[in-house]
Amino acid sequence: MKTLKFKGHLVLKILDGTKTVTWRLFDDKDLQVRDRLDFINSDTGAKFTEAEIINIREKKLGEIKDSDFEGHERYQKQEDMLQHYKKYYGDKVNLNTSVKIINFKLL
Asked: What is the torsion angle, in degrees rounded to the nearest 10, for the CA atoms of residue 25, residue 27, residue 37 and residue 39?
Protein backbone atom coordinates (compact mmCIF):
# COMPACT_ATOMS: atom_id res chain seq x y z
CA MET A 1 0.00 0.00 0.00
CA LYS A 2 1.20 3.51 -0.77
CA THR A 3 1.95 5.85 2.12
CA LEU A 4 1.83 9.59 2.68
CA LYS A 5 3.61 11.31 5.53
CA PHE A 6 2.21 14.25 7.49
CA LYS A 7 3.76 16.41 10.20
CA GLY A 8 2.43 15.67 13.68
CA HIS A 9 0.54 18.96 13.98
CA LEU A 10 -1.66 17.90 11.03
CA VAL A 11 -2.68 14.50 12.40
CA LEU A 12 -5.59 15.74 14.54
CA LYS A 13 -6.81 18.00 11.72
CA ILE A 14 -6.97 14.97 9.44
CA LEU A 15 -8.64 12.75 12.03
CA ASP A 16 -11.29 15.37 12.92
CA GLY A 17 -12.06 16.06 9.25
CA THR A 18 -10.73 19.63 9.17
CA LYS A 19 -7.99 18.65 6.69
CA THR A 20 -9.33 16.71 3.71
CA VAL A 21 -6.80 17.81 1.09
CA THR A 22 -3.06 17.44 0.69
CA TRP A 23 -0.83 19.10 -1.88
CA ARG A 24 2.06 17.09 -3.28
CA LEU A 25 4.86 18.26 -5.57
CA PHE A 26 7.05 16.01 -7.71
CA ASP A 27 4.78 12.97 -7.20
CA ASP A 28 7.15 9.99 -7.21
CA LYS A 29 4.36 7.61 -6.08
CA ASP A 30 2.11 8.09 -9.12
CA LEU A 31 -0.85 8.87 -6.89
CA GLN A 32 -4.19 8.13 -8.56
CA VAL A 33 -7.89 8.41 -7.76
CA ARG A 34 -9.06 5.34 -5.78
CA ASP A 35 -5.57 4.65 -4.39
CA ARG A 36 -5.75 3.48 -0.78
CA LEU A 37 -3.08 4.97 1.43
CA ASP A 38 -1.57 4.54 4.86
CA PHE A 39 -1.11 7.93 6.52
CA ILE A 40 2.06 8.18 8.59
CA ASN A 41 2.93 10.71 11.28
CA SER A 42 6.36 11.83 10.05
CA ASP A 43 7.35 12.94 13.56
CA THR A 44 6.85 9.46 15.06
CA GLY A 45 6.86 7.12 12.07
CA ALA A 46 3.55 5.63 13.23
CA LYS A 47 0.57 4.94 10.99
CA PHE A 48 -2.42 6.94 12.22
CA THR A 49 -5.14 6.14 9.67
CA GLU A 50 -5.99 4.85 6.21
CA ALA A 51 -7.53 6.92 3.43
CA GLU A 52 -8.64 6.75 -0.17
CA ILE A 53 -7.98 9.36 -2.85
CA ILE A 54 -11.31 10.62 -4.20
CA ASN A 55 -10.13 13.42 -6.51
CA ILE A 56 -6.91 14.86 -7.95
CA ARG A 57 -6.39 18.17 -9.72
CA GLU A 58 -3.12 19.56 -10.99
CA LYS A 59 -2.09 23.16 -11.42
CA LYS A 60 0.94 25.38 -10.99
CA LEU A 61 1.64 26.95 -7.60
CA GLY A 62 1.29 30.38 -9.17
CA GLU A 63 -2.28 29.50 -10.27
CA ILE A 64 -3.54 28.59 -6.78
CA LYS A 65 -6.81 30.34 -5.92
CA ASP A 66 -8.66 30.78 -2.61
CA SER A 67 -10.97 27.87 -3.47
CA ASP A 68 -7.95 25.53 -3.67
CA PHE A 69 -7.40 25.99 0.08
CA GLU A 70 -10.71 24.36 1.05
CA GLY A 71 -9.76 21.46 3.32
CA HIS A 72 -6.11 22.58 3.35
CA GLU A 73 -4.07 24.89 5.58
CA ARG A 74 -3.79 28.47 4.33
CA TYR A 75 -0.76 30.70 3.87
CA GLN A 76 -0.65 34.42 4.61
CA LYS A 77 1.13 35.23 1.35
CA GLN A 78 2.19 33.46 -1.82
CA GLU A 79 5.83 33.81 -0.70
CA ASP A 80 5.00 31.94 2.56
CA MET A 81 3.59 29.09 0.48
CA LEU A 82 6.73 28.95 -1.65
CA GLN A 83 8.99 28.94 1.40
CA HIS A 84 6.94 26.16 3.00
CA TYR A 85 7.37 23.87 -0.01
CA LYS A 86 11.03 24.80 -0.47
CA LYS A 87 11.62 23.37 3.03
CA TYR A 88 10.43 19.98 1.77
CA TYR A 89 11.51 19.99 -1.86
CA GLY A 90 14.40 22.47 -2.09
CA ASP A 91 15.10 25.48 -4.26
CA LYS A 92 13.66 23.86 -7.39
CA VAL A 93 10.20 25.00 -6.19
CA ASN A 94 8.83 28.11 -7.90
CA LEU A 95 5.51 29.50 -9.10
CA ASN A 96 5.70 27.29 -12.23
CA THR A 97 6.03 24.08 -10.19
CA SER A 98 3.08 21.70 -10.63
CA VAL A 99 1.17 20.67 -7.54
CA LYS A 100 -1.22 17.74 -7.19
CA ILE A 101 -4.21 18.82 -5.14
CA ILE A 102 -5.41 15.57 -3.62
CA ASN A 103 -8.79 15.16 -1.93
CA PHE A 104 -9.06 12.14 0.34
CA LYS A 105 -11.56 10.42 2.61
CA LEU A 106 -10.71 8.41 5.68
CA LEU A 107 -11.50 4.70 5.68
From this structure: -40
